[in-house]
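FORM 7B: Structural annotation worksheet

SECTION A. Query
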Amino acid sequence: MSDSAVHLAEGPRAALRPFTYADGPEFTARARESRELHRPWLFPPATDEAYASYAGSLIEDRAKAGFLVCERAAGGAIAGFININNIVAGAFRCGALGYGAFAHAAGRGLMSEGLGLLTRYAFDVLELHRLEINVQPGNTASIALARRAGFRHEGYSPDFLFVDGAWRDHERWALTAPE
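SECTION B. Predicted structure
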């Protein structure tokens, strides 16, 4: 889907748009191609059924928002994804980010650009005040992405998330809206 009308934000090389059900075939193919890159950190849906459930929760649950990072060139190919989970409104106005690059796009700066687009969109359009990223300490690529995007390291959370069959420790990174 390269139609710029569906883009929520655009940079020089990347664009941000919401998940759709129609993205399933490309997303799952990219997830299968990227399995080695993602393990043991991520387990994105690799089948049509799993994608339909995953995308459905991002599309229909008001406490979540899912975004695809797409290449502006290459016909709008999906380079990765960034989700805002646990969105809380009111006085808190916060969300927790989860993200992943696909293998063909890894190391090309598309996710850095996409995360920059997402943070501006989250602060300006969604009117969130705080974004958090929770990363397993060994996931150096994810930590480097958070750091490049200006997130600050706030702490360490033992046994924070259940990932790949066990409770895993995570580092907590955060960014607050500019005044």
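SECTION C. Observations
The two ends are 35 Å apart (CA to CA). The longest helix spans residues 110-124.

SECTION D. Sign-off
Analyst initials: ____
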